[in-house]
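step=encode ok
step=design start
structure_in=
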């Protein structure tokens, strides 16, 4: 009998919980995760820096031809930078939070 390959879950996006005042919700049934032989592995961009030169070449072409699109929240004026920063910390932005000078 051949066993199935374990399932994998990549953990990304931890910045959203940096300022949490309570523990983030987690798996509700760890026994099921064990029974499914689930593998949970965190990943950081630093783990893949060797791909960066290749990515820049591809991503710049994708941005130019419209294949890759970005979304950001833009706040006007340096005087609004503190408000933009606080909004970013609350998750009020979509994509990058930018301040146009």
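sequence_out=
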């Amino acid at each position: 009998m051949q066993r199935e390959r374990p399932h994998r879950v990549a953990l990304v996006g931890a910045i959203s919980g940096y300022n949490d005042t309570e523990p983030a919700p987690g798996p509700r049934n760890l026994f099921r995760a064990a029974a499914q032989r689930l593998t949970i592995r965190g990943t950081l961009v630093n783990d893949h820096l060797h791909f960066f030169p290749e990515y820049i070449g591809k991503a710049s072409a994708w941005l130019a031809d419209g294949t890759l699109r970005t979304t950001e929240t833009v706040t006007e004026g340096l005087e609004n930078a503190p408000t933009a920063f606080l909004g970013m910390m609350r998750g009020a932005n979509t994509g990058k939070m930018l301040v146009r000078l």
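step=design ok
step=annotate ok -> The chain has three helices and four strands.
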